[in-house]
């Protein structure tokens, strides 16, 4: 019986952290992290866009990815669907602007990778292939290094 209760709690935990709200983007930290002030008031919430991984700020195309996200979202209204937190205590979220998934937009325009997990293609893999074929954004120059490989080799940006 105790095992069933524990299993139920583990399965339900992500759902307990899920929320949907509307707000205004107040800050763009990098190509996959933004701050949104909820419409109902309160302090801005730090959000990490799910399903993508943008270049680190100090790696090639990192500044361009941040600029693209800032130009699209800063001081703009968005719809946020949170999906838990990451290891840095940021809310993981899917963000929509004008009914468009911003993670998908970042990948399609060559500003981020579609996140993969244990060798399985990420949800935006088709969009990433198109961006690569069209040599958009970070794919315009050969040798783009995934952020996870970059961090492993060089560490996090300071």
From TrEMBL:
Leader sequence segment: 1-18
Keywords: Endonuclease, Hydrolase, Nuclease, Signal
All residue ranges annotated as the TNase-like domain in the record: 19-141
Pfam families in alphabetical order: SNase
Entry keyword annotation includes Nucleotide-binding: no
InterPro entries noted in UniProt: SNase_OB-fold_sf, Staphylococal_nuclease_OB-fold
SMART domains in alphabetical order: SNc (SM00318)
Protein name stated in the entry: Thermonuclease family protein
Organism of provenance: Ramlibacter pallidus
